[in-house]
Prior knowledge:
This protein is 37% helix and 27% strand. With 247 residues, the protein is of the alpha/beta class. The chain has a single domain (10-187, 226-244), classed as Rossmann fold, CATH 3.40.50.1580. β8, α4 and β9 (154-157) form a beta-alpha-beta unit.
Amino acid sequence: MSPLASAPPVAIVTALPEELSPILSRAHKLERVDRGRYVGFLGGTRVVLAVTGDGSGRAERAAKDLCREFGPSALFGAGIAGALSASLGLFDLVAARRVRDSGGVAPDPDPELLSRARSLGDPAGALLLTVDRPIVDPRQKASLAAALALEEPAAADMESSGWARAAASAGVPYAILRAVTDTASEPLPSYLSRSVGPEGGIRRGRVVAFALARPATLPALWRMRRRLGHGAEKLAAFLERLVGEAA
């Protein structure tokens, strides 16, 4: 039996409220359980939807709690990512074939969930590298790509390995889907890498303070925000199709 077709709910987690919002707008019979958590139906499938927070540590703790409390049949991580490979274009969708971080390779995604996602024709299989802070310099991206000796597309994010390890520790099959919102050749405002808090998340107040001191970077921040919204909408539409296949 497919992991999506079993009785418990399917869990869908994002790092940021902005990534979850378009999924919530597509859900039906939605009920808020507590702050950042909802239950309802997406594509005819019962789901639990949650924001874990950004940063690998926070993402792992929140996903572990979610798995323990709801016992989901499967867990999907969803969010934006930055391309490390030149072959990935803006708003491309990727599905994790492998996940790794500074600690090594995380437990593998569920092959059936990955196959189901890729059978819909949208996401490329990719390596997702979880990093401690945003990669803002194209030279850093190129260096990481070279160090990984890539034979597949790769993208960077800040939560995937946390979600992967949480799902694996709970015995829950998982898959991770991401939308590319900056390409391998694009620089980001340098202060983003200096705005990471002690728990690994981006401190938005510090980003605002840096940006106000450097107003020339404001257009780049607005562009990132617009892209986040577009990428999240594309992911929400894809997830609705994906979980609906098993309804």
